Amino acid sequence: MSIPSTGLSDWQFGPLVVKPKVAWAMLQCSNTRGYELLAAGELESFLDGRSRKITVDSIHAYIARRLDLNERPNLNRLRRDRRRRRERGTET
Question: How many CB atoms lie within 10 A of CB 34?
């Protein structure tokens, strides 16, 4: 008799969820900032009994979103520069 696979072999690469204190350490942020991220919907969490759990995938997704924002050009700066060129009459 064989034991059916649950498909959870990825667990060997790390946990799927972490407690808030561990999540804040992963993000290197304060308790306050961490709970702000939860309240803003930036991180996914759930209650397991009375214990809050935060998904590691949501931590990775948050970091990816932040990196993506940092790689985009600052649109406000571009608009400001364009407006200044227009005011000076040097816009092409």
Answer: 20
Cβ distance 54 to 23 under 8 Å? Answer: yes
Q: What is the dihedral of CA 48, 58, 75, 71, to 10 degrees?
A: 150
SS3 54: strand
Any idea where the domains of the chain sit in the sequence? 16-87
CA separation for the pair 92, 89 (Å, rounded): 9
Q: What are phi and psi of 48, to 5 degrees?
A: -115, 90
pLDDT per residue as tens digits for the range 34-49:
999 999 999 999 999 9
Single pTM value for the model: 0.65
Cα angle 68, 70, 76 (rounded to 5 degrees) comes to 115
How far is Cα 28 from Cα 22, in angstroms, rounded to an integer? 9
DSSP state of 90: -
